[in-house]
Amino acid sequence: MYGPPSLRRPARSTGRRRTGVLAAVAGLVVSLLAFVPSASVSAAPSLLSQGKTVTTSSQESGGTPATAAVDGDNGTRWSSAFSDPQWIKVDLGTSASVSQIALKWEAAYAKSYKIEFSTDNNTWSTAYSTTTGPGGNETLNVSGTARYVRLTGTARATGYGYSLWEFQVFGTTGGDGGPQIPGGGDLGPNVLVFDPSTPNIQAKVDEIFHQQESAQFGNGRYALMFKPGTYNNINAQIGFYTSIAGLGLKPDDTTFNGDVTVDAGWFNGNATQNFWRSAENLALNPVNGTDRWAVSQAAPFRRMHVKGGLNLAPNGYGWASGGYIADSKIDGQVGPYSQQQWYTRDSSIGSWGNGVWNMTFSGVEGAPAQSFPEPPYTTLQNTPVSREKPFLYLDGNDYKVFVPAKRTNARGVSWNGTPQGESIPLSQFYVVKPGATAATINAAVQQGLHLLFTPGIYHVNQTINIDRANTVVLGLGLATIIPDNGVTALKVGDVDGVKLAGLLVDAGPQNSQVLVQVGPDGASANHSANPTSVQDVFVRVGGAGAGKATTGMVINSNDTIIDHTWLWRADHGEGIGWETNRSDYGLQVNGDNVLATGLFVEHFNKYDVRWSGENGKTIFFQNEKAYDAPNQAAVQNGTIKGYAAYKVDDSVNTHEGWGLGSYCYFNVDPSIRQDHGFEAPVKAGVKFHDLIVVSLGGQGQYNHVINDTGSPTSGTSTVPSQVVSYP
Fold first, then answer.
1. Is residue 568 a contact partner of residue 602, using CB atoms and an 8 Å limit?
2. Residues 90, 169: contact at Cβ < 8 Å?
3. What is the CA radius of gyration of the chain?
4. Which helix (DSSP H) or strand (DSSP E) does residue 204 occupy?
5. Residues near 39 by Cβ (< 8 Å), separated by ≥ 6?
6. Exposed / middle / buried, residue 98 (Cβ in 10 Å: 0-12, 13-18, 19+)
7. pLDDT digit string (tens) for 706-716?
8. Is 207 a catalytic residue?
9. Virtual CA dihedral for 403, 408, 412, 415, nearest 10 degrees?
């Protein structure tokens, strides 16, 4: 992201005791043992289900989640809705020889139920059934091979639902039957954890900042984590590849009497390259009443409580180009000043100061009223579907990851009152550290573990496959994945509820067809009750070195939520050039009912976004066309001049977008013309609201905004051409 001299510069898981006359047989036993081959000794049954992925037909409340039945804690429980039938299913991660089931019922137990086994989550066999269940603690001896074990209750003993303290599956998986990859452990050297008594906090935070302040394409990756408490006299300046976060369950659990600051002194007051950093889950009492967060792309401000104002511009009000706020409360005014565009979602603000080109809000209490084009405010009262990003927190002395619940028609922050969602102990995560291989990461997922990537750079020579429902893949400190041999870095199966969050995927020198893929080709399952979400997942092609990818991200699964992504073909740094870091497409959407909230896609050689699925929705889109097109012929699309920034296929019947903008800055050949920024079929079900195109300083021009609608840009005055409603 950059711009012209007039506005911004180009560059961006008992034994029985037998009694008897043991002495009489002892010698015989010893003699016999000498003839028993060691290889025939069976592995002792192990507890296989603890910490594994678990799903249910229903949940009574936020305090009785499915995971409580497999957490090894007899004080937590899963409970269902008050109806029949209901089920609970555990995925053991791999096929096992199951020999015993232990059920620890709460007072609300099952009178009639069955236990079923499956190896593929499709074909089921009954291992046990009863119509006279006694409740209490039941131990069932069973036999069979299963990866998936399901208990289905068909008649309740009480008027309440089904309630289990623990659902335990015992058996062997080969060898000793235990997990081969341990969960949990320390967070590695690049996660710095502070508490209020830690000495020299400011000095350490400053040390990281001085290293990272201008290291735009450096190898440093850091997460600064603050335990609950109050911290005085802190000014945490945040540089590249640095995340700062509180470790409470709510932002107000961790309070700074001070600031979390991003400014642009390193770049002469220009904030248009302040990328790849984040702030989460903190409360701030800014020293001067207003905190400064002068950023552009890939710099989310999430789950924050600013007890004052928030300034989004650099010192001196220099250039700044767009950012993202979600699930945050700013008591005072948000001042965007020179920010050209911004998206704020499901938050609460005291007021909003001004608008330049495109200020978009959904589900924001205190947002300005809809008024596009003047002032350029696009305001939706609610966000149709949202689920906040998972985050690491401390429960006493134990690390857990909180996964917020899905909300529909969301408005305001998610953390008023008791946060709704699920807590997963760190013991259920493979804590990935630099040096880990893709083979180990995949084995951990197959074993049933979630993934927590610690800050670092991860080279992979095979695809990381996430094909288990409800898996959480969470990165800290802009953890970066690089495919070395042209593979797809990350693939998600056509399964429910995967959460990808907090990762940077950087193209390698050998071309990858796709860098991030959600759902296989032809994915068709309905995930509306439990969608996969992609949050703060950024894609980069070039900039840190030579890289190529045909398409940055492909969404095949239906109902996916894309919540804040920046897909960027580099326009500056190392390994850049029209063919050197070639990447034709930024985002390809094939799934139906996909929702994008906060979509930033820039500089791809052809279409930046191409949408082929039905009933897609985008709330806020920011784009720049590739600066480095050598001439008009290089971007000629048949008879059309230039590839649209955002194209909806002609076959699509329903689509809707709000607050979309595309800019051109053809600095190699300023005579290039782009027929339109947006292209869509002319159908009643395809609708757009509040679109703009801008020629930055006259370096190239648009002939129209969308299709053949909207006035052309002209001259060097950098004035947007706008369309309020289409068709």
1. yes
2. yes
3. 27
4. helix 201-212
5. none
6. buried
7. 999 999 999 89
8. no
9. -30
pLDDT in tens, 631-641: 999 999 999 99
Beta strand pairing status for 391-395 and 377-380? Answer: unpaired
How do 585-589 and 609-611 pair as beta strands? parallel
Question: SS3 letters for 129-177?
Answer: EECCCCCCEEEEEEEEEEEEEEEEEEEECCCCCCEEEEEEEEEECCCCC
Q: Find the catalytic residue in 388, 422, 624, 679.
A: 624
Structure tokens that stand for 122 in this block: 């499709």
> Residue 220: which H helix or E strand, with range?
none
Q: Report if pTM > 0.85.
A: no
Confidence band, pLDDT 50/70/90 cuts, at residue 279: very high
Task: Examine the pLDDT at 686 and tell me if it is beyond 90.
Answer: yes
Q: For the chain, what percentages of helix, strand and coil (3-state, to nearest 5) are there?
A: 10, 45, 45
- Give the Cα separation of 57 and 420 in Å (integer): 18
For residue 634, the SS3 value is: helix
Asked whether the beta carbons of 282 and 305 are under 8 A apart, the reply is yes
Tokens of 452: 């927590």
Q: Report whether the peptide linkage leading into residue 727 is cis, meaning its omega lies within 30 degrees of zero.
A: yes
Cα–Cα dist 16/18, whole Å: 6
- Residue 11's pLDDT is 34
Closest C-alpha among 357, 316, 315, 362 to residue 339: 357
Indicate if the pLDDT at residue 38 is higher than 60: no
The pLDDT of residue 468 is above 70: yes
Give the closest residue to 648 by CA, choosing from 620, 688, 675.
688
Q: Is the dihedral of CA 13, 17, 18, 24 positive or negative?
A: positive
